[in-house]
Amino acid sequence: MDILSLFVILPVLTVIALGFTKDLKQARILSMIGGLVQLGMAINLLFSYFRERAVNDSIMLFTRDVVWFEQFNIHYNIGVDGISVALILLTSIIVLAGVFISWKMEELPKEFFISLIVLSTGVYGFFISIDLFTMFVFYEIAVIPMYLLIGIWGSGPKEYSAMKLTLMLMGASAVLMVGILGIYFNSNADGGALTFNILEIAKVNIPFEAQKLFFPLTFIGFAILGALFPFHTWSPDGHASAPTAVSMLHAGVLMKLGGYGIFRVAMYLLPEGAIEWSWFFIILSAIGVIYGAFAALRQTDLKYINAYASVSHLGMVSFALLMLNKTAWNGAILQSLSHGFMTALFFALIGMIYGRTHTRDITKLGGLLKVIPFISVIYVVAGMALLGLPGFSGFVAEMNIFMGAFQHDSMFYRIVTIISISAIVVTAVYVLRVVGIMLMGPVKNEAYTKLAGVTWYERTGILLLLIPIIGIGVAPLWISNMIMESIQPFIQGVL
Fold this sequence. Notes:
- Keywords: Membrane, Transmembrane, Transmembrane helix.
- One of its GO terms (biological process) is ATP synthesis coupled electron transport.
- This is NADH-quinone oxidoreductase subunit M.
- With about 500 residues, the protein is mainly α.
- It has one domain.
- The protein has 22 helices and 2 strands.
- Strands 1-2 form a two-stranded antiparallel ribbon.
- A hairpin with a 4-residue loop joins β1 and β2 (about 75-80).
- The chain is globular.
């Protein structure tokens, strides 16, 4: 069995085993074991990648190619580079943290963990796929469980939020399918056979008119999942209604499929289309960065604050990718990783606060630092990471993005970069606003004077997410170098 297929097979086996569990204890222990094994596999993949990369300069490593539908040249074609490995590691950590944060899930626990693991299966499959059709199939596997996870286990207007999310993402899938088929039917422009293989299509000179037509469709199809303005509205409502672990996976992992797809498919296979359309989508991305920050500033619900912060920070990812240079692309991938860990940590903390106070309204909270100091201190640390303080992953990512953006001589690029940078100031304002209102001062409600302490499983989930945030911020070179060497063949294809 190859090392990559295990990332699909093991979750499937875990789901089958969960089907035979009888109670909450068995379901959560089995889910924890499955998550631990996935994390162990991701760490093993990381070290295996370093060893293989030292002697192998292929674009993708650990490749495997099995024919699925020979008539249409559809293959189960998989492989990874440094970017895929980093995102697989991100996924494994957040999945395990989500299991710990959901340790006390009592409503249909078996079905909940099954849905969560099916989602992660789709994400793993997406990150290892080289074949466009296979990638799209895994994309759908990752998206579909969100409807059930929000509609069944969510809160508030959960049916509305689940349906809105599903319709928006299904619409994105339809647009994306048109883009993928457009690429497929132009993949024989140089006289070869039609193919879905990304590496083979990259060698083909797809006509400029086709690129100009299908790039915006492919870009938008992926970017909707990345909450591109103005297609972002599904995300805050989805986050607000989703249970904690689902919000963690939704923002921390699922939304990363958007940026990864833009990088791996839209940019790499349609480079002339990317250059032609970049100015338009840069404007949308810059608006999203600023809009998300100001929208977060106006919210009082903790989940909506974090959801709009995600719109802003994921806008940075698409903004950086559209800059079409190596430094900005490195920043985009680092931002995806950093945002994944940070937003998952925030949603975990918000879930813990809500579970104890039964409110997410910051105006009804106050003085929590005195009552639940561990959660409060970690919230402050996460806030410092979010606004890009040195020593945290956010600083490393944003500095690469802004340095890459400023490499352009055009005044247009400089202006939109300055506008986007100003979002950091707004981020600092809403982070400090929440800290001041929710954590500082006297306790506003007598019922909040004695709240439950942090359990071992909550503490474990928090530390799983906090360690990478600090680790990347303090020692970023190992992962930055791994990403940079993986970007090189792709940036050459674009430029």
